[in-house]
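Subject: sequence -> structure tokens, single chain

Hey, anyone have a minute? Need the predicted structure for the following. Not urgent.
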Amino acid sequence: MPSNRRPKSTRTRTTAAAASTRKAVLVGEQLAAKVRRERTAALRRRAAAIASAPRRVRARAVEIEARFIRAAGSKGVATLVAEGDSWFDYLWYDVLDMLENEHGFDVESVAGAGDRVEDMAYSGGQLANFKKILEKLLRRTELPKAILLSGGGNDVAGKEFFMLLDHASSANPGLNEDVIRGVIEVRIRNAYVAILTAVTELCVTTTGHTIPIFVHGYDRPVPDGRGFAGGWPFPGPWLRPGFHQKGFLNQNQNKQTVGILIDRFNDMIKSVAADRRFPHVRYVDLRGTLPTGVNYDEWWGNELHPTRKGFKAVAQRFAEAISKA
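Reply:
Had a minute. Here:
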């Protein structure tokens, strides 16, 4: 049955978006307050455990030969704290590995492969672990140079990817504008606003400093059907199955469609970083870092993840941005 509702005007959508953002900020503040309460209680228990610990189990200084200290390597140029998904937590190598080994940073991470940005924002696990890392750094009288945040790829790619598409034989084939707007510009955007608010609050209340936060929107991949280590039983592919399910069989056309989706995602991330509430948030544009033309498989290990060479190029972009903070 056709709907009698008129489509929302641009002004109505803008007003609704502003109200949604305010609610997301409030959610982020509440998340940060919850983590602070839980960590305050945990630190009290920790202090009591330390005070009651037998002397024989208490830490004591141990002399370590200089050769072992030298073998551990030098202290990094600065410490980064990372929260995110598989771009920060990939088997064998990832962006964080490259920042440590190629650029000399010390990296503390609570990233988890497969995590959705909603999980990072609302489940509380990564936020609680993030605060614990800040507390450990404070015990070493150390302040992070920057916070790195990677999330959203798992929210739009995977088993649910086909839901973003109208069938090739339908009246409006391709990306469904209403679904894209709802997923990227409402659901994921609200999660980003909440997590950025929470991370900012935790940094200020834990360290007394507003620490720069770097976010990104990924690069444009090739939906060629390659999963991790060849796919099943390992993860992936994430994109081509959805295209084929909806009747889109041309890889070049599908690549263009994914490019449009990634551009929309980047536009959203960039707009969040430009919000006046987040003057300390920096957007890193990674598009064009990983080629998708001839020999693209030298840069892309599968549909969603770079090769070692690709991760190195992505880390270079992050290092350049951090150097300007």
